[in-house]
Every structure is written in C-alpha cells, then in structure tokens.
Amino acid sequence: MTVTDPVESEQAPSSLGRAAARTLATTTKSVPQMQGISSRWLLKLLPWVEVSGGAYRVNRRLSYAVGDGRVTFTTTGTHVRVIPPELGELAPLRGYDDDDILTELADRFTQHEYAPGDTLVEFGSPAEEVFLLAHGKITKIGTGAYGDQVILATLADGDHFGETTL
Length: 166
Known about the structure:
Helix content is 19%, strand content 15%. The chain has 166 residues and is an alpha+beta fold. The strands form three sheets. The protein has a two-stranded antiparallel sheet with strand order 1-2. It has a two-stranded antiparallel ribbon with strand order 3-6. The longest helix has 10 residues, at 99-108. The protein is elongated, with a radius of gyration of 33 Å.
C-alpha cells in the first residue's frame, strides 16, 4: 500500500479573514458609500461637514420649560438676562403670551449683585420691586413665637418674590 501526500493548491480564499472584515466594518463611510445604505431624505436632512479634527455636534438646540414655577435666564459673560416667555411664571403674567410686551418687560429688569448677609427687603416696608433670583440663595427670616429669628423659607436659582407689585 502506498501513501500519497495531499497536493496543496494555491487558490485564493473565497471569503475575508476576521481581521480584514473588522477593518472594513470600522472604516469611516464617505458620502457615496452612505448613499447605498441610507434613505435619501436622511442624507438631505443631515449636513455633511468637513472637519479636520475634534468633535462636531450637529443637533444641539436651546430649549427651556415654561410652567415649572421657576424663571430661566440666559447668561453671556457676566450679563444675565431673563428669557421673556419665562415671565409667565409670575402669577400676574401667567397665561399672557404677547411676546413684544414680555420682551419689553424683560428688558426693564436690572441686574444687581448682593453680598452675603445683605438685607433686600424688611418686613412691613412697602413692596416696590419684583426680585428674580438668577444665582444664589435668599433666606426669608421672620420672628418666632418667643421673639427669636426663624427661617421661614429659602429661595434659590429661578425663584421670585414681590410680584404683587405688578
């Protein structure tokens, strides 16, 4: 009996190896390659932007919730401004939707900075201003049953008081 060695033929492989398939799967797709696998409306909706490096974020948008009981502000550097539709959080302006009037009212607010321990309003004095708190905390202090000071409430970012003057 004779044993023959199998003859090795040099044929090209019929499929990709695991490493080659992974390389193809993780490459960055260009616009023509994406057209073959994406619907056309999506390609028109998404902008193709050439970015040399870093991160590029497309769908970031400014939003704010009206009706949460707090006033929201925009901050540019050290300048703070109330968002006009957010004035609807104040009880006298709730449901008011004239944007021109709300913008005019928002422009009339002035920014003040106070040091810790400053007194803003004393009990018994007439209310002449509306206070919108953009950043920080305010403590309402009153007199307790035995003449000592009692903390009545603490207001924080977005809270307001004095809207009865409106």
